[in-house]
Here is the input.
Amino acid sequence: MKHRLKIWLRVALAHVFHLTGLRGLFRSRRAGIPVLMFHNVGYPAETDYLPGHMKIGEPKLRRLLKHLARAGYRTRTMDQTVDDLAAPVPPADTVALTFDDGYRDNHDILLPMLREFDATATVYVQTGPMKGKLNWLHHYFWVLHKVGPHALAELLAEQIDRPHLRADLAKLSSDETQAEYDMKRLLKYEITAEDRERILATIFEAQGGDDATLARSVYLDADDCRALDKAGVELGAHTVNHLILSGLEPNQQRLEIEGSLRDLEAWLEHPIPSFAYPYGRSWDYDDTTREILVELGFRSSVTAMTGLNDASTPALDLKRIAVNQDSRLAEVLCEVDGVFAWLSRRGLDLRV
Here is the structure.
């Protein structure tokens, strides 16, 4: 009940502040710079298997960009945002746009929109798919889309040799959304990276999936990366295989991080200063991860933790605000203007 009341109040206040124009009054008091987080843009058939929370439709993104432009916001790359945060007085008219993973639609659909609104962004690229290798999460989503959560749970149980995990899979919620969430969490945190990759790859191939074919249709290639870079879009590193870094040994972490860095450097022929943690929760990376990023010369890294960023925010723990097709534009714009951060400082925390 308390959570539902919080959501209702957040939605109601966002619409009031947006429709009346009052949200603009908070901008001069904004205590930080917002970084928005996206994944897929548009609905190309090739990415039908990816979940809705990773997608934003072209019309909705265009409306958001139009609102930002009308309000006088300047879009910034993450490298530019690091400079903004270091300024004596961080600007109140900037917002950073970030897109994770490196999907082909970021070139085919996003880039023309950025040009239309004279905007820029940072695209974080996992480079394994550019070489024809998909990670376990794509195998999971692809099979899930094909057979549904409970059939996938049965397929997983056939491959997993631990009775307690098979028992967990057998008692998944009848609600498909909850079942998907619980199964994904089990795969992320209850199974070793090696077993997870092997099991999902086996199921994916048995269902007729092919890594190289799917990767070519879904992900950017080196030429696409060069085109984005030439157009002023920043390319950032996002590991090779999108693994949970905190679950890896230090040498494995280094291979994942440095591998994506070197790939991008080779394709673009210039330094890569920005990084995004796969999954991005505070438990998905650790001090070892940060040490490797410093050694490799990264200036910043972004998380999936929500909030604004100010001069006190560590450059390797920058926060972002997730946006997808289900996000209400009024709420997103209130986040950008700092409305919810202002309310939180006064004891009314409506951030989600």
